[in-house]
Automatic annotation (TrEMBL):
Keywords: Coiled coil. Signal peptide: none annotated. Residues 107-141 form a coiled coil. The keyword Oxidoreductase does not apply. This is ATG14L.
Length: 469
């Protein structure tokens, strides 16, 4: 198939109708030549061939302007060339303007930086002025302080000298106080030793040997044991509890077990006998009351010499003032034991495991043998021993009654007028004991020893009380 072209526009247009080939005419049946257009893929009978399409000799089927594709393509290329030329001309004319704008922007940026630098410089100047003012103020303050520091240094030197002087004075006073405490302790020990040696002698009675124990089956021992049997309230009671182990104060002895029930038996016996008790000095009632009375007197003197306030007022006249009920006797003994234990604690007795809440004279003997006896030390109480205080606690009933003998005037034993009017040269601690070694001790087996020694103790203690007042 060959396409004819002419110089006119109508001739250049692609034909809308084409002649069919002989193959179509020669077809036996009725056929319709319908092919799809390669451009629009339509089923119209009008179409363009491939060669026309390749050459661009076609137009749009619905175009209002009849221009071929080749013409439009040439026109597009020409427009691009013209556009490029126009762009080059515009760039040549716009380039100086762009450079001018760039220079203006740089100039504006420099102006802005200059303004910022001016502001920073002004701020720095203001800060420098303030810093200079502060520096001047600091220099002025430092100058004033340097002037004051000289005065303070002089004061510091004076204060250091004063402190050193006071330290030295305190050290001297501490040494003096320590010396006085040691001297006081020695004086206390000396006087208590003299008191214990010549007036209130306390010692442990050694139990009989095994040979003597074997002799207990003899007739003499049987008679002696029978002499200590008492018929009370319809039964026989053994009243001698002083053989198991005793502690002696002057002449009377107290049992180490702390069992003072023979005194109560003696009181009960005297009441059953119609108020006619056994008044011999060797009976258990007199022995126990005398021992407790002397122990109470010794404890009162020791508390006075050691300057220790006891928990209970130690009024020893209750033990020698007459017969006591069992309740009052028990509570007075409990007070005595508590006072002795407190005095042991105040003097730092270390044998806590050996202290017995009921053994009166044993605790007192431990107190007299304590290495720190006479010293002024803090009071330390053993917690384990505190639990055993329940055994020697004074009942609430007797606490409510108060000290039933506080108001009595019989706290001191009556002494002879000749002994009371004896001339005493001085009432100091040294002068009071200077004549003690010259006293004559008559022995412990005499029945009148208790009264003589008690009178001597009363006279000595009256001197102590007069000095205290």
């Amino acid at each position: 198939m060959v396409m004819e072209s002419s110089g006119t526009e109508s001739e250049n247009l692609a034909p809308t109708e084409f002649l069919c080939t002989s193959s179509i005419e020669n077809s036996t049946g009725l056929t319709v030549a319908v092919e799809r257009c390669p451009l629009c893929d339509g089923t119209k009978r009008k179409y363009y061939c491939k060669s026309c399409v390749k050459q661009g000799l076609f137009i749009h089927s619905k175009a209002t302007v009849c221009q071929r594709y080749t013409e439009l393509l040439h026109k597009l290329d020409f427009s691009k060339i013209e556009r490029d030329k126009t762009l080059e001309k515009c760039q040549e004319k716009v380039e100086p303007l762009l450079q001018t704008d760039i220079r203006l922007q740089e100039i504006n940026e420099c102006h802005r930086k200059i303004d910022l630098l001016k502001i920073a410089l002004q701020t720095a100047k203001e800060k420098m002025v303030k810093d200079r003012q502060q520096l001047e103020n600091m220099r002025r303050i430092n100058a004033n302080k340097s002037v004051k520091s000289k005065t303070h240094k002089e004061k510091k030197i004076l204060i250091q000298k004063f402190i050193k002087q006071k330290y030295q004075e305190i050290s001297d006073k501490n040494e003096n106080i320590k010396f006085q405490i040691d001297t006081l302790a020695d004086i206390r020990l000396f006087h208590i030793g003299v008191l214990q040696k010549y007036i209130f002698s306390v010692e442990e009675v050694i139990p009989p040997s095994a040979l003597e124990a074997n002799m207990a089956v003899s007739t003499v021992s049987a008679i002696r044991d029978a002499s200590h049997m008492t018929y009370i309230s319809g039964k026989w009671a053994y009243t001698n509890s002083l053989e198991d182990g005793n502690y002696r104060i002057i002449v009377p002895t107290l049992p180490s077990s702390g069992d003072y029930s023979p005194y109560n038996l003696w009181v009960a016996t005297s009441r059953e006998n119609g108020g006619n008790p056994d008044n011999s000095l060797q009976n258990p009632g007199h022995t126990i009351s005398g021992g407790l009375s002397l122990t109470s007197q010794l404890l009162a003197v020791l508390s006075y010499i050691l300057d220790v306030n006891l928990p209970w007022k130690q009024n020893y006249s209750v033990f020698c003032g007459g017969e006591m009920t069992e309740k009052h006797f028990k509570n007075d003994v409990a007070r005595l034991n508590q006072n002795i234990l407190y005095l042991c604690f105040s003097q730092g007795v270390q044998e806590y495991h050996q202290l017995d809440t009921k053994n009166t004279l044993q605790n007192l003997l431990y107190l007299l043998q304590c290495p720190t006896f006479g010293r002024s030390i803090p009071v330390l109480i053993n917690e384990e021993l505190l639990h055993s205080f329940e055994e020697v606690t004074v009942t609430e009933e007797c606490k409510s009654l108060g000290n039933h003998d506080d108001d009595q005037d019989g706290e001191w034993e009556q002494v002879n007028e000749d002994l009371a009017d004896m001339e005493i040269p001085s009432r100091t601690f040294y002068s009071m004991t200077s004549d003690v070694p010259s006293m004559m001790y008559t022995g412990r087996q005499s029945e009148s020893a208790i009264g003589i020694v008690s009178s001597a103790a009363a006279s000595v203690f009256s001197i102590f009380k007069s000095n205290k007042r």
